[in-house]
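thought: fold this chain, then report.
action: predict
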Amino acid sequence: MTTIQPYMLIFIFLTVLRIDYIYCTHLYVVVKSNRGVTFFDLIVLTVSPFLFVLLLTAAVIAIFISLLFSSAVDLICSKSNLSTLCRLVKQANLDEILSTNNNDFTVFAPNNYAFNMLPDDATEAVKDKIKVLTDLLGYHVAGGVELFFEDIDCKDKLKMFNGEFTFTKCIGDDVFQVGTGNTYNALPEIIDVDIEACNGVIHIVDQVIIPSTSR
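observation:
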């Protein structure tokens, strides 16, 4: 009688599980069809453990590729401290735009703390009016450019998705990406940098970038 080896159990798990990674490049990585485990599969494994090594290698490569090919919106929604931004991006139907590979994006992503710091009237306006929400979120995205932190210079002027400009301001070692509607005591500081997506790069800020039209 054939002894069931540990690698056989792992193989059974992988064959039952269909691993499809669908990201902004529309790349599909399929480790094995989800047709299930057949008697032939077990025979092949019994006589050829090398096949399992190849399959496991394919699974590892698939996971690695999934990390490389995550879109900006995928990465935003994967982070617990950006859950509010994720929800608002979907509410404004901007998730499809930030998932496309037809453009490069630089996203200044406000964390949950940043949205909690918004005045109550601004929060209500964002909730009730999709146009205001779209304009606000668009003020955090620069299209057609992929700016890593080392590429951002003090006194830079950057055109955003909503047509307005943001400005880079440096105070000591701190770097801020400031909107025309931000007050001096609530400047959006870049606190986490260079989160790479397949279609751009994300920097996390600790205040919402406010356009002048949102005053």
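thought: worth noting. The helical segments are 6-16, 39-47, 49-68, 72-78, 83-91, 112-116, 120-128, 130-138.
final: tokens above.
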